[in-house]
Design goal:
By secondary structure, the chain is α/β, with parallel strands linked by helices. Helices cover about 35% and strands about 15% of the residues. The structure holds pyridoxal-5'-phosphate (PLP). The site of pyridoxal-5'-phosphate (PLP) has 12 residues, from helix 8.
Length: about 240
């Protein structure tokens, strides 16, 4: 998913959203309801996940009207959504967020099973995914990221033991996407990297594009001295 919050990090949300979708992004992430509405008004029809909190019945009605996909973080919030949607007779796709260590938004990961069971019981809410956010994926020290990953895995195991198979799981921001494929799950939420920005200096070496002149061979494959321009992308191989 392409993260186009904050006017696509200042690059222009509508233009970046269209470009990312044309290039194959499966959906968009924004921070606020207003940002989501702006994309819908620009006639963008792709799934739009609201990363920020929305709580009031008025917000729920707007989210339903524009068919945006909210993040649900607490049982109380889930109840407000379900009650308001019952009045509208409209079902919404929702994403359930677990707090695995970011301590900003999300249900404590230890309570994942009870939380997901509650949401599944409520009418008019369709669970689209379960996700969490990493606080320090860009750090050289992977300790906190590994702990968060482990907690996410334990939360998923809780769900599986209750017979719940979430349709989609996601955890990675740009730094995690560049760091370890084990963090990729079913989709990644990429912001910084989408704009050509490296989340941290030590991640710079991860991708190395290289172009060469027409007629030059690539690597040691001397039989490759074709008249074409070569464009190589060097990627690390994970053990
Ligand atoms: C929940 C969530 N996921 C993904 C991202 C994208 O992060 P990055 O720009 O580091 O890729 C953000 C950015 O704020 C976020 O809040």
């Amino acid at each position: 998913m392409a993260v186009v919050k904050a006017d696509a990090y200042g690059h222009g949300a509508t233009m970046v959203a269209r470009t990312a979708l044309d290039a194959g992004a499966g959906g968009l992430c924004v921070a606020t309801l207003q940002e989501g509405i702006q994309l819908r008004e620009a006639e963008i029809e792709a799934p739009i996940l609201l990363l920020g909190a929305t709580n009031t019945p008025e917000q729920v009605r707007a989210i339903a009207h524009w068919q945006l996909q909210p993040t649900i973080c607490t049982p109380q919030q889930a109840l407000v959504f379900s009650e308001t949607l019952s009045g509208l007779k409209k079902t919404l796709s929702v994403h359930l967020k677990l707090d695995t260590g970011m301590s900003r938004l999300g249900m404590p990961w230890q309570e994942a099973r009870q939380f997901v069971e509650l949401v599944k019981r409520l009418p008019y809410l369709e669970m689209k995914s379960v996700y969490s956010h990493l606080a320090t994926a860009d750090s050289l020290d992977p300790t906190v990221m590994r702990l968060q990953h482990q907690r996410f895995e334990e939360a998923i195991a809780q769900l599986h033991s209750a017979g719940i198979e979430p349709p989609c799981l996601h955890l990675a921001n740009s730094a995690a996407t560049l760091t370890d494929p084990a963090l990729h799950y079913d989709l990644v939420r990429v912001g910084l990297a989408l704009y050509g920005l490296y989340p941290a200096e030590h991640l710079r070496s991860v991708i190395r594009p290289q172009a060469s002149d027409a007629g030059e061979s690539a690597g040691d494959a001397s039989e490759n001295d074709s008249p074409w321009y070569w464009c190589q992308l060097w990627l690390p191989i994970y053990r």
